[in-house]
Structure formats: structure tokens, C-alpha cells
Amino acid sequence: MAKTEFFKVTDSVYCLRPRQTLSSNVYFLEHQNKLVLIDTGVCSLYPELKNAVGSRLVEKVLVTHGHFDHVEAAGFFEKAFLHKDDLNNLSELNSFMPSFQTPKVLPLDLKKIQFGPFSIQPIHVPGHTPGSTVYFEENSRVLFSGDSLFAGGVHGRTDLPLGNQTEYTKSVEKILALNYSLLCPGHGELER
Ligand SMILES: [Zn+2]
Q: For residue 111, how far is its CA from the centre of ligand 1 (angstroms)?
């Protein structure tokens, strides 16, 4: 059986979700045979990610934070972006995962990204990690939240290296104020 499932979220958004492996969901935003990916998952699932991408061109990869299960396979892509506060701390953030293969990623610019019909606003939400970022697609009000918020209002962890509960509490308020209509978290179920 495949280690992942691939399903449609909205008209032009898809999700590659691992069934068991400790890896993040990967979201695909599609426009005219091009993709923007949110997160990449781990290297061991890259063959399935590559298969799901198919012949489409990955224009950009937007990574929500520097934990191995979200960023590890980002090194397979030319333009993968991560907030500098995580980029500069990749080793420490993943010190609990000795097998982590540090990917080469680029510093994220927090300005709005236009991609076809999508208008994607990166928002810095420190707490789970110092550089945690959520991506808010403003036209359809879809929020890609990484590990900063899960379905059912479940909070992210702040007990991992460089986590900060005080910052996290402020960030959650910022996230809830976005008034999103669909939550696409880094793990598990989506919330409509
Ligand atoms: Zn995480």
C-alpha cells in the first residue's frame, strides 16, 4: 500500500498526506501546470511526492517551519523558502532527530506572493519554533498552519528545542483573528 494518500481539497488545492510515517502533510496549489508547495515532508517520502508532482513545474516551496518532518525533502527543490529564524537554527531545532539531513533552503521574504488566482500572505507566528510561519490564501481564506494550529483548535507543542509558550500564545491569537474558512494543518485532518 502507498505510504501516502493524495486528495483534492478545493478546486486547485491538493493534499498529500502520509498514512503512518512521521512526516507532514504537503499541500499543492496548482495553476496552469505549475505548483506552489506548502512543506515537503521527509526525504523517505520524496519518491511519492515526486510522483504526485508528475510533470508539473514546482515554482516555489513555502516551508512552515524548520522541523525535519516538514522541511527535510526541501533540498530536492531549487526554490524552497523558510523563515530566517528557523533557517539559522536548523541543527538545534532538529537536535532530537540525529538522522536529520539538513536541506539547503533560502530565506523567506514575508511579502505577499501572487501565484495565478492565489494571493498568499506569509505571517510570522513564533512559538512552536522561532521562525514558524503560516500561509494565508486571502481570496479563498484558506490557512496553511503548519504545526502552529491543528483541527479542533488543538495547539502546537512548545516543549521542543527553542519553543516558546509566551510567544506561542500571542501567535495563536493572531492566527484565530484571521477568520479563515478552511484550516489546512501540518498533520492530520483539515477543518472546514
Ligand atoms: Zn513542528
A: 23
pTM of the model: 0.97
CA distance 92 to 66: 10
Q: How far is CA 158 from the centre of its chain?
A: 17
Give residue-wise pLDDT tens across range 121-170: 999 999 999 999 999 999 999 999 999 999 999 999 999 999 999 999 99
The domains of the chain are located at 4-185
Nearest of 131, 124, 185 to residue 163 by alpha carbon: 131
Residues around ligand 1, an ion, CB closer than 5 A? 67, 147
Q: Measured in angstroms, how far is the CA atom of residue 32 from the centroid of ligand 1? A: 31
Task: Report the relative pairing of strands 13-18 and 142-146 from DSSP bridges.
Answer: unpaired
The shares of helix, strand and coil residues in the chain, as percent rounded to the nearest 5, are 20, 30, 45
Count other C-beta atoms under 10 Å from residue 98's C-beta: 6
Q: Which CATH class is domain 4-185?
A: alpha beta
